[in-house]
């Protein structure tokens, strides 16, 4: 994990919200207060779990998801946690691998049909 040092693109602002001591939401907004990207983190027993990291369609390819991940990693590190976990989509997998994440195992989703 490395701390991100480059600034957000012009016209974007980042906000961290902590609804509970172990939960965080990082949101990037446009200057018009429109949500451009968001990600969540929960700290559980020494593990940082990343969840629902999304960049909205009109704001993709600007590095916003990278900023979200790096901000969440910074939060985890500030709490003394360096063990990280997330479940990625195929598209997200490419981003996470470019940031140094490694595949631990493949993930399967199952449902009970009605």
Write up this protein:
It is a single chain. Helix content is 21%, strand content 35%. The mean pLDDT is 90. Strands 1-2-3-4-5 form a five-stranded mixed beta sheet, covered by helices on one side. It has one domain (12-98): 3-Layer(aba) Sandwich (Aminopeptidase), CATH 3.40.630. The chain has 114 residues and is an alpha+beta fold. It has helices at 64-78, 90-98, and strands spanning 12-20, 23-30, 35-44, 47-55, 83-86.
Tell me the number of helical segments per DSSP (H or I, 4 or more residues long): 2
Distance separating the two termini: 43 Å
Label the CATH architecture. 3-Layer(aba) Sandwich
Order of strands, main sheet, comes to 1-2-3-4-5
The CATH class assignment is: Alpha Beta
- Overall 3D form: globular
How many β-strands, per DSSP?
Answer: 5
Helix/strand order: EEEEHEH
Largest sheet: 5 strands, mixed
The residue-averaged pLDDT reads 90
CATH fold naming: Aminopeptidase
Percent range of helical residues = 10-25%
- Structural class by SSE content: alpha+beta
List the main descriptive attributes of the protein structure presented here.
114 residues; alpha+beta; Aminopeptidase; 21% helix
Produce a short descriptive summary.
This protein is of the alpha+beta class. It is built from two helices and five strands, in the order ββββαβα.
Record the SSE blueprint.
Elements: E1 12-20, E2 23-30, E3 35-44, E4 47-55, H1 64-78, E5 83-86, H2 90-98
């Amino acid at each position: 994990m490395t701390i991100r040092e480059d600034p957000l693109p012009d016209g974007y602002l980042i906000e961290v919200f902590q609804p509970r001591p172990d939960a965080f939401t990082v949101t990037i907004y446009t200057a018009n207060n429109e949500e451009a990207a968001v990600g969540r983190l929960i700290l559980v027993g020494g593990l940082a779990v990343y969840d629902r990291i999304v960049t909205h369609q009109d704001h993709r390819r600007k590095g916003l998801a990278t900023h979200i991940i790096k901000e969440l990693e910074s939060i985890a590190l500030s709490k003394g946690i360096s063990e990280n976990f997330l479940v990625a989509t195929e598209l997200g997998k490419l981003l996470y691998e470019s940031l140094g994440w490694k595949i631990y195992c493949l993930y399967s989703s199952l449902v009970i049909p009605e």
